[in-house]
Write a structure and sequence with these properties.
The protein is an all-alpha fold and 425 residues long. Helix 2 packs antiparallel against helix 7, helix 8 packs antiparallel against helix 17 and helix 12 packs across helix 18. It is globular and about 60 Å long.
């Protein structure tokens, strides 16, 4: 056994990577509840596609979370410390708010449901602010690729709860019970928060609110220059645009193709799990050897091509009956999409983490991930209208075309093999 093999195993199975599993699961659960479970619930209760598509606007807190991230950088709650205190508060708020969905009727309480969904998105975005900062502060620069890969895999694994287990349960019990069970899966993240230690940074927390607000932006622009900063921000906006739009109405798409909720839960979601997990872990190991820049190129190509699988499936139209052949087609499409998007997302998040400065982690990370959420929030709000205007097949071709500009910007922000030196606090 070589020293490299020993080091690889030590890195993968370290306590830090275990913590990344819990941060990913806690971060992914509420988002997937909003983008998978909520649309499935609304669609199964007879809500039209246009209304469901407009529900993408509830993701606005993910887009604007950088506005209140300085407060979470500057101030600490009375217990547990600056990071852990905000983590626990947001996780308990998510547990409570997710459980309330089942008290409403989609036909009569659609505005109340929208308001509650916006509340869940706010708590989820707030949790992401502090989880991203916490993860960046416990990972060394050398661990960023692998640590963020583990986080993303756990993030996707969390999608099995609202995207698979909850859908299966929805065929067997009332929706109110389904949402309570889904909400209880926030408990592992809360327990993790209680068990870990508060990270220690040499730079410490900002001493004033002005320092917390102004300095993160000043540091980023000073370090990159105005032109370099704009290239990076443009890339962050565009890299996941096509993929985000393609998957925004995934569950309604499967339903419109003729698949039952239980089939989606058992086949589609599980077919996406193992390719994402295996591909993500391989991607993390490859990033150690390739570097983040090469990974963005290689994984991004797979991500773009995987969108075409949806167009291929949509070209068959709605199935009159779903048998083994149709289920196999769905499994192949979802599996390839999960592999491509899992790889691309792991490299993308590692790039974002690398672009932050250790002294201003929360605010800079929130700014970058907020910008990445803009397509998911604004562009995705129009997806229902687009699908009803041009159909599913043309829609997925459009998503593929929209994924190309982000790849082209790699020439500017991540030249092949030209990874920058680690940032110092």
């Amino acid at each position: 056994m070589t020293l490299a093999t020993i080091n690889w195993r030590r890195d993968v199975f370290s306590r830090t990577m275990l913590v990344c599993v819990f941060t990913g699961f806690a971060s992914g659960l509420p988002l997937y509840a909003l983008i998978n479970l909520l649309p499935a619930w609304l669609r199964s209760e007879g809500v039209d596609l246009k209304s469901i598509g407009l529900f993408a606007l509830i993701g606005l807190p993910y887009t604007w979370k950088f506005l209140w991230s300085p407060l979470m950088d500057r101030y600490a709650l009375p217990l547990l410390g600056r990071r852990r205190g905000w983590m626990l508060a947001s996780q308990l708020a998510l547990l409570a708010s997710l459980a309330v969905f089942g008290l409403f009727d989609p036909q009569q309480d659609i505005w109340s449901i929208a308001g509650l969904a916006l509340t869940v998105a706010f708590f989820s975005a707030s949790q992401d602010i502090v989880l991203d900062a916490f993860r960046r502060e416990i990972l060394s620069d050398a661990e960023l690729g692998l640590g963020n890969t583990v986080h993303i895999n756990a993030y996707r694994l969390a999608g099995l709860v609202p995207g698979s287990l909850s859908l299966i349960l929805a065929d067997r019990m009332p929706w109110g019970s389904v949402f309570v069970i889904t909400a209880l899966f926030m408990l592992p993240g809360a327990l993790m928060t209680l068990m870990v230690k508060e990270p220690k940074l040499a730079s410490g927390s900002p001493k004033t609110l002005r320092q917390a607000v102004v300095e993160p932006f000043h540091e980023f622009v000073t370090r990159q220059g105005w032109q370099g900063a704009l290239w990076i921000l443009g890339f962050i906006f565009l890299y996941k645009l096509g993929d985000s739009m393609a998957t925004s109405l995934a569950t309604p798409f499967y339903l419109d193709m003729g698949y039952a909720k239980s089939q989606i839960g058992l086949v589609a979601k599980h077919a996406g799990l193992w390719p994402a997990v295996i591909g993500g872990l391989l991607g993390g190991v490859w990033m150690i050897k390739l570097g983040i820049n090469r990974a963005l190129w290689a994984f991004g190509v797979v991500q773009v091509v995987s969108i075409l699988g949806f167009a291929w499936l949509a070209s068959y139209g709605r199935f009159d009956s779903v048998g083994a052949e149709q289920l196999a087609m769905l499994a192949v499409v979802i599996g390839f999409e999960a592999l491509g998007v899992g790889l691309g997302t792991a490299a993308f998040v590692a790039f974002i983490a690398r672009s932050t400065h250790p002294a201003y982690t929360a605010t800079q990370f929130a700014l970058f991930t907020s910008l990445a959420a803009v397509p998911r929030t604004l562009a995705n709000a129009a997806t229902g209208y687009i699908v009803e205007s041009i159909g599913w097949t043309s829609f997925f071709f459009l998503c593929t075309a929209l994924a190309i500009p982000g790849m082209m910007l790699l020439v500017k922000v991540a030249p092949w093999g030209d990874d920058p030196a680690p940032q110092q606090a």
